[in-house]
Every structure is written in structure tokens, then in C-alpha cells.
Amino acid sequence: MKRNKPRQNIIKAFNAAIEGVIYTFKHERNMKIHYVIAVVVLLISLFLKGNNFLLIDEPTNHLDIETRNNLVNYLEKKKGFILVSHDRNFLDKVVNHIISINNTNIEIQQGNFSSWKENKNRQDNFEKIQNERLQKDINRLEIASKNCAKWSNEAEKTKNKK
Strands 54-57, 81-84: parallel, antiparallel or unpaired by DSSP? Predict the structure, then answer.
């Protein structure tokens, strides 16, 4: 019976992940289903590797400072957990990888929250500058197109007068 216990744990984890995805999809209309499926596949692959990954959701809510510090000390020694938290300082202390679910992809980056946020800000700034350049090019091309159309119309008018 003990041999089936790891498999049963995987099945329970899989079912919990599926239930979470279904709940999220029902309540978050702007989330695209293929991103949700990608997250499920990622979680399943983590659980199937034979490691026990704890899924820890907002562990610092309602904790006093001493308990938070004890939790930090514990998690610093722990390997293999997935942590969801809005507490940036806590994340900086206990994580060494960030899984980021974006509009177009899912990224895994080594480092803590601050390094991820810094890289994200750089990427966002780069994309903003690129977008501004593209918009300038679009505007320039639209003006050139209008000028060419105007010139063409004027050339056609002079042909018709002859």
C-alpha cells in the first residue's frame, strides 16, 4: 500500500491543480485557456518529477513579525516549493526563482523578486521605446502615403486636362 502513496499524492495534487484552474478560469474571464493549461502542465511536470513541491499560498497573511521571521528561516533551508505572495520583502528573502505568467508566455527566471522586477521594468521600458519608434515610423509612412496619394491625384488631374 505504501507504494501507491506517492502516486495518490500526485493524483491529489493534479486534481487540486485542475480544480484551481477551473475556479480561476470561471472567475477570471480575461485569462486565456491556453495559459491556464500551460500552468497546469508546468505544475504537473513538477509533481511528476518525484519531488514533493509544497504549494504555499499567501503564508504571511495575519502573521506577526516573529512568526514571519521563523517562516523565512524555515523556507531558506527548504528546497522545492511554489510560493504565491504579495509580500515582496518576504519573496526576496526566500525565493531563488520566479515563475511569471504573462499575457503571451510563461517565464522562469533565476533570482528573487527584486531582480525579476528590475528585469521586467527594463523589458517594459525597452518595449515602450520600441513601440514609440514603431509609432513614429507608422506616422511617417502615413504622411508619406498621403503625400504620394496627393501627388498622384494631382498628376492624374493634369493628364485628364490635356
Answer: parallel
Distance of alpha carbon 36 from alpha carbon 29, whole angstroms: 12
Strand partners, 99: 108
Q: Is the pTM of this model over 0.85?
A: no
Give the distance, in angstroms, between the CA of residue 30 and the centroid of all CA atoms in the same chain.
14
Residues 6+ apart with CB under 8 A from 97: 108, 109, 110, 111
Indicate the SS3 state at residue 65: helix
SS3 2: coil
Please give the DSSP secondary-structure letter assigned to residue 111.
S
Q: Judge whether 6 and 50 are in contact, CB under 8 Å.
A: yes
Quick check: 104 pLDDT over 90? no
